[in-house]
Specification:
The chain is α+β, with helices and mostly antiparallel strands and 87 residues long. It has one domain. 17% of the residues lie in helices and 44% in strands. Strands 4-3-2-1-5 form a 5-stranded antiparallel sheet, covered by helices on one side. Strand 2 and strand 3 form a beta hairpin.
Amino acid sequence: MNSSVLPTTTANVRILRQSWQQGKIVGEVEAGSYQWEFQWYFRQDKLKVHPSFGRALIYEPLGRFLEHCDYQLEPGGDYQFTVRAQL
């Protein structure tokens, strides 16, 4: 195995609720054996992820994904992004 190749994990995101009036998206994310719930306050650029167990692994990549795609996300939609780590 080439040591310069970074391990990757696919993160699966499901959008549960969205409120443009509140500036908020609520959803779930799963990567590897971890699962979290999140709240993205896009007007304030603020992300909350629960539970805290393993949160450091997903917080930054999930934040980048949400910042990049927030206007394209729909309630009930399933999305994916790649995390450059083995989770």
